[in-house]
Design brief:
The protein is mainly beta. It has a domain of 92 residues. Helices cover 11% and strands 31% of the residues. The protein contains 2 helices and 6 strands. Strands 1, 2, 3, 4, 5 and 6 form a 6-stranded antiparallel beta sheet that branches. Strand 4 and strand 5 form a beta hairpin. The longest helix has 10 residues. The termini are far apart. The N terminus is likely disordered.
Length: 132
């Protein structure tokens, strides 16, 4: 989920740059998206550390503090590990059988024994008393 960029990726006095990617899902409208961030670690004039989140070349607020849905601007957003949204989209685009049409199933080789057919009496025999 994260990796530290080499020294060539440092900009504007950053001491380190970490790349993070997240998946997001809006709990209001169902919109899902993924975003990658460069998290730049800096030090201010008083040597205190702070970070800047950069997405698509622009400094943005931390997606972890108050994420906003790109579709409806709602703030009830679930944050997940990277790849969650794309894997759901791939599954949605897989061909599905038409209604009434069964999906192909692997059928195991037939067993040499005859399958047992269960009857209710087979299950209830443990509750029956024996005549004395």
């Amino acid at each position: 989920m994260s990796e530290i960029a080499g020294q060539s990726g440092l900009r504007n006095g950053a001491t380190a740059v970490v790349n993070e990617s997240y998946s997001f899902a809006c709990m209001r409208c169902g919109h899902g998206w993924e975003q990658s961030y460069e998290i730049e670690h800096h030090k201010d004039a008083e040597d205190r550390e702070f970070v800047l989140y950069v997405a698509d070349g622009r400094v943005v607020p931390s997606p972890l503090s108050r994420p906003t849905c790109q579709n409806c601007d709602n703030h009830v957003v679930r944050i997940m590990r990277a790849g969650q949204v794309s894997s759901v989209r791939e599954a949605a685009h897989r061909p599905r059988p038409l209604p009434g049409q069964a999906e192909p199933v692997d059928v195991p080789e037939p067993d040499a024994r005859e399958p047992h057919h269960w009857h209710l009496s087979d299950l209830l025999h443990v509750f029956q008393r024996k005549a004395s």
